[in-house]
Amino acid sequence: MPKNLFGYTLPALTEEMVSLGESKYRSKQLFSWIYQKRVFDFDAMTDISKSFREVLKRDYCLDLPKIVTKQESEDGTVKLLLEMEDGAKVETVLMPYDYGDSICVSSQVGCNMGCRFCASGILKKDRNLTAAEIMGQVMVMNGILAPLGRTITHVVVMGTGEPFDNYDNVISFVKTVNEQFGLAVGARHITVSTCGLCPGIRKYGKEGLQINLAISLHAPNDEVRKQIMPVSGAYPMPELMDAIREYQKDAGRRVTFEYIMLKGLNDSLAQANELADLIHDNEIFAYVNLIPYNEVKEKPYKRTEYPAIKAFSDVLMKRGINSTVRKEFGGDIDAACGQLRVKYVKGGNHAS
Fold first, then answer.
1. Is 89 exposed, middle or buried (0-12, 13-18, 19+ CB in 10 A)?
2. CA geometry: angle at 334 spanning 331 and 337, to 5°?
3. Residue 249's Cα: distance from chain center in Å?
4. Per-residue burial over 233-271, b = 16 or more CB atoms within 10 Å of its CB, e = otherwise
5. Predicted local confidence at residue 350, as pLDDT
6. Shortest CA distance to 109 belongs to which of 92, 129, 95?
């Protein structure tokens, strides 16, 4: 079966080329064709010898996922349901900001973390995505943007799946996104989000990457967190805070706490103060991203009204913790993570 070149980091491809008797430079040539020139036809790579192009055509490929469904919002959001070679389907979302185009990619087919409020977990994990399949989401979206003279400038691994449950493939992907001969997206424009897998957080801090880390916290204490995030049973708040402190010692980087506002559950002003205490008492260098909830019909949770979100944010700011309210995208399409795939599968289409 041909090996997909989208799955290689530059060092791994260099090693592969040397093993074939080619020069180290060959890998940079290929990266240039693929990521800078966006040429996916080996025959069009004219500065590579014809004989080696035949080797590439025989043993390698540049296959991309197929678009099953495309939704476009009035605000410019684009949501794709993509099909992999084995029929598995995943979502990816483009969010246009004033400062550039951000893509949210999925890391797994389905998710086993079981967060109660999330549409992604309705369909359990089928398998991990390969590095090539994660990269394929970006390349397909870049293909949509190219005629508009635009390209992906920011990448977040916050779609379906838990990135640290697919650690090696996710790290390979973000390295190529950041690689100057790859997509050359700045490290601080890339974010990996975890629901709190402590071993992954500790390992990530030792990677030597400047890539951002976001923690899906969503509660100021274990009592509330255990109601909505089963992972807190395995990694309770004290262990999570300890892992984050270790990450910050190793990486020297601020973390983002993602906090979905759920009406009547985690959105009181007392809980805002409790969250501030948690951050200060554990000496965490962080800011909090408050997220208006996209309601999911299969879930009982309701969104907090904006004035209450603003009041929650104001408490954090007065306590010296930077806080933002995430801009909402795709309100007129299936905006919630996993929603489009759930609708497709439950509508009697192919299960995957």
1. buried
2. 100
3. 24
4. eebbbeebbebbeebbeebebebbbbbbbbeebbbbeeb
5. 47
6. 129
Assess whether pLDDT exceeds 60 at residue 344: no
- Known catalytic residues? 91, 337
Q: When comparing pLDDT for 258 and 75, which is higher?
A: 258
Query: Is a pLDDT exceeding 90 seen at residue 349?
Result: no
Task: Look at strands 3-4 and 60-61 and give their pairing.
Answer: parallel
C-beta of residue 336 within 8 angstroms of C-beta of residue 119: yes
Written as six digits, the tokens of 124 are 């359990």
> Where do the domains of the chain lie?
3-61, 66-346
Q: Mean pLDDT over residues 218-230, rounded?
A: 97
Architecture field, domain 66-346: Alpha-Beta Barrel (3.20)
Residue 334 confidence (pLDDT) above 70: no
Instruction: Record the tokens describing residue 266, joined without a space.
Output: 């985690």
The amino acid present at 264, given as its one-letter code, is: G
Question: Are the CB atoms for 112 and 100 separated by under 8 Å?
Answer: no
Query: How big is the CA angle at 161 (ends 190 and 185), to the nearest 5 degrees?
Result: 15
For residues 16 and 8, the answer to whether their CB atoms sit within 8 Å is yes
Residue among 298, 352, 288 nearest 326 (CA): 288
Instruction: Give the architecture-level CATH label for domain 3-61.
Output: Orthogonal Bundle (1.10)
**pLDDT 10s digits, 275-299:** 999 999 999 999 999 999 988 888 8
Q: Is the pLDDT of residue 218 over 60?
A: yes
Rounded to an integer, what distance in angstroms lies between the CA atom of residue 39 and that of residue 62?
A: 9
How many helices and strands in the chain, by DSSP H and E? 12, 14
Reported as a single tens digit per residue, the pLDDT across 20-66 is: 999 999 999 999 999 999 999 999 999 999 999 999 999 999 999 99
- Put simply, whether the predicted model's pTM sits higher than 0.70 gets the answer yes
- Placement of tokens 């299936």 in the chain: 334
Q: Which two tokens stand for residue 71?
A: 């939704």
